[in-house]
Amino acid sequence: MNTVLHRRRFLQWTSLSMAGAFLPGCSNDDPGARYTSLDIARLAQQRLDEGTLSGQGPFGPLRFKGYRGLAELPWFELDSQGELRTADLDLPKSIDMHCHLGMSLLLAPEVDLQQRTERVIHLLDCDGTRPGCELDLDVYINRNFTDQALDELWWGSVAQGLWGSSRSSTQTIPNLLHEMDVCGVERASIMPIAFDLPFGDDLTERWIQAINTAGARERLILGCSVHPKDPARFTRLREYAAEGARIIKFHPTMQRAYPDSDVMMELYAECERLGLIVFFHCGRAGIEPESTHRYALPRHYDAALKTYPKLQFILGHAGARDVAEAIPLAERYDNTWLDTHGQGVTTLHDMLRRTGGERMLFGTDWPFYHLAASLAKILIITENNPQQRYALLRGNAQRLLSITTRAA
Description:
Blueprint: H1 2-22, H2 37-53, E1 63-65, E2 76-78, E3 84-86, E4 94-99, E5 134-136, H3 147-161, H4 173-183, E6 185-190, H5 203-214, E7 220-224, H6 233-243, E8 247-250, H7 252-255, H8 262-274, E9 277-281, H9 302-307, E10 313-316, H10 323-332, E11 336-339, H11 345-355, E12 360-361, H12 371-381, H13 386-401
Parallel strand pairs: 4-6, 6-7, 7-8, 8-9, 9-10, 10-11, 11-12
Antiparallel strand pairs: 1-5, 2-3
Helix pairs in contact: 6-8, 10-11, 11-12
């Protein structure tokens, strides 16, 4: 009977999810919809502008053949096995504030997170061919991938919930630690996402257990997630904090919850009481279902940032393709930090100029991309300023987390 019920709930969830994925986004100007034709036009214009302006900034064209192609930069090299690694031993050891592990959900077999494999297959794998894909560091990172690669990402996500994914099976703790080692990353924050699935939705518990089993808590900072519709969300929050979680990940797009909704505002109060840092996915990446675009617009975060000035908030991807609306939030609120992952070099340079860089955080969104794809951008924009380089790669995160780490 339980098996029949689980299958029925799974089919219901799948039907609703697939319907949501293909429904068009709301394009009217009804304030109740909270998503307007102007929002849609702004995203379309951003996509046009980034292509036109690529290479026109202060650093010129920055195009490479795959992640391995970054060996053309002075801070990287290819070893005897052709693996990309940092070459400059004087770089500060970095703290990556935005990582995940291989996901398995619903019916998929659980990923063996203790397994070491020959190489990581990133979800957007720019080294999957030789030569690798065209990698332009001056555009939002998703622009580098073909429709075929994005389709493969979509089907891979389906596989993570049904029959398992060969890519996910490589996105393990030993593989992450190895990539961290060759890229000079000392610590990384591991952030699961709670999806509100009928079963198999326990990434936080599984990832914390896996990190403990690997004895990796010295290097992997525990994160957690709860879904705003979960009746046990407050209990779970307290349990995760007691286990040692430092950061909670909220994903308004995937969780389909406005960040300024009443239920979310109640969760922030508990996060503040527990001393958790709130990490948001913020903005539209442009590859998610259009029907979910409305949830993550930067203006929807304003109330949370204003209402809880003592709670520290990180805007993931610095607003993604809505970065122009996210940067002013960090300028306005002292409790708001910008995760640098995904943004192009010229945008990061402007962000650094406007904010002073005191609340910019190095992030990579591993295993979507190679760690070096994000690291290279920070090294480029801080080439002549070692103090800013140290702050962005390490110092800001260390200050936010109040942690003492090994000497850089």
